[in-house]
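From the methods appendix. Each design record in this collection lists the tokenized structure first, followed by the designed amino acid sequence. Records were kept in a plain field format so they could be parsed without special tools. The example shown here is representative of the layout used throughout.

RECORD:
FOLD TOKENS (216 positions):
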């Protein structure tokens, strides 16, 4: 397996606050990003946000837009948020530029990965490259990428997810250690290493190739 790399974060001075975040949120925020579709599992995060906000106030920033066939899914998540009373605590930030993504990664209380299905998620690698505290589902392949650099929960187990979010707000020493693990793990996803291993793998495959026998 040859993993692809991740770009190093832009300098702090180049980061841009997303236009959807008008003014100071006035509270910590959690960040998630990716195309808005059922496989994203955003319902977990909305339900967990409602649990966390029983004892404190925090915000959720969602980066990304709905795919052509998933507008109904976003509408369903918005209805869920309204029913749980947390609509005002959620910002649908839309499609974010790299500088805006970097701003969110660098300032969030935690980057949360609720996806049910992924290949090699760029946002997971980007979150680690920013030294984020990461919270993720435990379904494959997420532990393959985060390894020890995330707190895990089972999909739909919103109580555990909410507990991790509360720890992110209160457990300073645990948060500091996990951020260090996150940043260290991101170093394994290097573009030069990706290129080198890709060439080596292709060369090895070429050496094993035998010309087909052509009969007379």
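DESIGN:
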């Amino acid at each position: 397996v040859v993993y692809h790399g991740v770009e190093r974060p832009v300098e702090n001075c180049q980061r841009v606050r997303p236009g959807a975040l008008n003014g100071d949120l006035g509270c910590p925020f959690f960040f998630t990003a990716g195309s808005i579709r059922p496989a994203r599992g955003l319902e977990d995060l909305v339900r967990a946000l409602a649990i966390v906000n029983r004892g404190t106030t925090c915000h959720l920033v969602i980066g990304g837009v709905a795919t052509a066939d998933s507008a109904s899914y976003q509408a369903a998540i918005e209805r869920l948020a309204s029913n749980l009373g947390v609509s005002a605590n959620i910002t649908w930030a839309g499609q974010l530029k790299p500088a805006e993504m970097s701003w969110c990664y660098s300032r969030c209380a935690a980057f949360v990965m609720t996806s049910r299905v992924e290949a090699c998620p760029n946002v997971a690698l980007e979150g680690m490259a920013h030294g984020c505290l990461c919270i993720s589902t435990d379904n494959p392949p997420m532990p393959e990428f985060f390894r020890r650099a995330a707190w895990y929960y089972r999909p739909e187990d919103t109580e555990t997810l909410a507990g991790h979010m509360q720890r992110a707000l209160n457990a300073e020493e645990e948060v500091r250690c996990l951020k260090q693990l996150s940043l260290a793990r991101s170093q394994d996803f290097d573009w030069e290493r990706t290129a080198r291993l890709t060439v080596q793998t292709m060369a090895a495959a070429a050496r094993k190739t035998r010309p087909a026998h052509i009969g007379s």
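APPENDIX NOTE: The first helix runs from residue 42 to 52.
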